[in-house]
Amino acid sequence: MNFESARMRMLREQLIPRGITDQRVLDAMSDVPRHLFVQDALRSQAYGDFSMPIGLGQTISQPYIVALMTQALELKREETVLEIGTGCGYQTAVLAKLAERVFSIERLKELHIRARQTLDQLQVLNAICTTDDGTLGWPQYSPFDAIIVTAGGPDIPKALIDQLADPGRLVIPIGDRETQELVVLKKENGEISRHVIEQVRFVSLIGSQGWHQ
Ligand code: SAH
User: How far does the centroid of ligand 1 lie from the alpha carbon of residue 204, in Å?
Assistant: First the structure.
């Protein structure tokens, strides 16, 4: 299997036709070897137009959703990003190509450790990962220019809005446990605006400002 050509086909058939126009996002996703973030048996399907299991009941998001959320963050090279839900670390690696530093929090230690191993293998040095409840953010490193939550919650955790810089962008799936709306929240001159960009299905955001277990 030629993974590089599968990656190019993913851009051509899944991302560009659906409106992913930010060249930096397209370049990042053509660089990051997505197949290395899934288990061996699933590698040949890693560039398919779907999410896939990564163990412990969690999933790696569909490529289009990774691209859409990343594009919505409008990252600049010198910025700092907070990611909630490291999972396998794929989205982390994409963000690391587009920002100066990525802080990523995963609730499940086993996933955090596995993601860190893959990120180390790819020499992603500007991503700092930890195991914790991300609904509380990471106050020590705040404020963040951008925040991305890759699990669906009942509402936007207040701690994350507080830790967002001004100006700043936050993207998060909000809804019930089955389906959510992908919300982009912007903070600018002390004002907060929100709009919905897509209907999505994410695994649950579990934590003190998310769903209960
Ligand atoms: N971006 C990931 C998506 C993983 S699925 C990827 O591409 O692989 C969402 C992840 O969010 C799961 O790994 C889940 O364990 C994690 N998660 C759920 N609630 C969380 C919380 N409160 N804090 C941190 N991580 C959380």
Answer: 8
What's the pLDDT at 1?
Answer: 83
Q: Which residues line ligand 1 (CB under 6 A)?
A: 54, 58-61, 84-85, 87-88, 90-91, 105-108, 111, 133-135, 150-151, 203, 205-207, 210
For residue 213, name the pLDDT band (cuts at 50, 70, 90). confident
**pLDDT, tens only, 3-61:** 999 999 999 999 999 999 999 999 999 999 999 999 999 999 999 999 999 999 999 99
Give the residue from 49, 81, 80, 98 showing the smallest Cα distance to 150.
81
Kindly list the catalytic residues.
Answer: 61
pLDDT at position 77 is 96
What are the sequence ranges of the domains in the chain? 3-200
Q: Assign domain 3-200 one CATH number from 3.30.310.10, 1.50.10.140, 1.10.150.20, 3.40.50.150.
A: 3.40.50.150
Mutate to test the pocket of ligand 1, among 150, 172, 213 (most ligand atoms within 8 A of CB): 150
Please, which contacts does 186-191 make with residues 24 or more away whose CB atoms are closer than 8 Å? 187/161, 190/166
